[in-house]
Amino acid sequence: MIKKILVAALATSLSLAGAAAAFAQDAGKVGVVVKIGGIPWFNAMEAGIKERGQKLGIDAFMVGPTSADPALQVRAIEDLIAQGVKVIGVVPNDAKVLQPVLTKAKEKGIIVITHESPSQKGADWDFELASSTGFGEAHGKLLAEKMGGKGEYAVFVGSLTVPLHNAWADAAIAYIKKNHPDMTLVGERYGVAEDVDKSRSTALDLISAHPDLKGFLAFGSQGPIGAGRAVEERRKVGEIFVLGPFSPGQGQKLVKSDAISGGFMWNPKQAGEVFVTLADKLMKGEEVKDGDEIEGLGKVKPDFENHNIIVDQLVPINKDTVADLAAMGL
Predict the structure, then answer these.
(1) How confident is the model over 137-149, as pLDDT tens digits?
(2) In the predicted model, is pLDDT for residue 8 greater than 90?
């Protein structure tokens, strides 16, 4: 009798597992290609993708290239197209390079969602957890406060072809020019902020070349880390201020030592969740409407012309907040 019950229970379990797998298969696969794999920011995003996928019964996964090379992203997207996924999410390294392959995906009936690339050509929707102007100005204002409104500063971006990083830089520089004319930008922008070693070496070179340098504004999660390490090495803590978005877990020690003076971020894990939430909505054939309440984004006012969904959810990173943010796995 017991044997029959166990056999029946096992059969039921297998049946439910099969049904769940079939549901996930029917729901469609969601593949998200990020800028680079293996760094804390995108590790947190991957956790959000997986957790949200499990909650919604969707096979959602992340692809992280070995370097921030747009060609590797193109290859990853081509692979996802070949797999027949229903949704491709992307955090682009180069908006223009990716445009043809994203257009190809759409032509094959694949839904395309991007992040950190407003008005991306070839995308159904791009979503942002911070507006470019608000994010850039917040950093520009904080840098001016730290520098006392005077001195030379340098700007790092992920690359010169990442639209959002450059939009942040535009907003920060414009704010500083308008409000703090005694602050001077050194050189051009340096496209090193997705590489901690290049950020460090570039910061070291700039410190040597510019004795009056007082600040680094680094857009790209590895930029503040590399610049902060350079400031520590040159024993310039308290003299040169480093600001920008970064992973709190990775930068916690540098914040506590004042090698990084702070910055703002949004929650990359939340961004990962939003990728899957939007994918689920669009796969069901639902449209994004003005006033929709979308989990992770709140109440939205979409820009239908440019296919952007932008909200402002800035999270300050400083000595008071960094430990708690790091404890969240960020």
Answers:
(1) 999 999 999 999 9
(2) no
Q: Which amino acid is at 279?
A: A
The DSSP code for 262 is B
Residue 312 in tokens: 């402002």
Six-digit token pair at 327? 């404890």
Q: Please give the backbone phi and psi of residue 134, each rounded to the nearest 5 degrees, phi first.
A: -60, -40
Rounded to whole angstroms, the Cα distance separating 202 from 22 reads: 51
Look at the block and give the residue holding tokens 């703002």: 264
- For residue 120, what are the contacts with CB-CB under 8 A and spacing of at least 6? 90, 92, 95, 98, 99, 102, 114, 126, 307
Q: How far apart are CA 72 and CA 62, in angstroms?
A: 14
State both tokens at 21. Answer: 């797998």
Instruction: Give the largest CA-CA distance in the chain.
Output: 87
- Output the DSSP codes for 51-93: HHHHHHT-EEEEE--SSS-HHHHHHHHHHHHHHT-SEEEE--S
User: Residue 134: what residue type?
Assistant: G
| Residue 255: both structure tokens together | 């914040």
Token digits for 113? 């969602």
Token pair recorded at residue 305: 């012309």
Is the CB of residue 251 less than 8 Å from the CB of residue 224? yes
- How many CA atoms does the CB half-sphere of 323 hold within 13 Å? 3
Residues belonging to the chain = 330
Q: Which residue has the tokens 């747009």?
A: 70
Joined together, the tokens standing for residue 27 give 């729901």
The amino acid sitting at 289 is K
> Which helix or strand (DSSP H or E) is residue 303 part of?
none
Name residue, tokens 């730290």. Answer: 146
pTM, full prediction? 0.79
Sign (positive or negative) of CA dihedral 92, 35, 126, 226:
negative
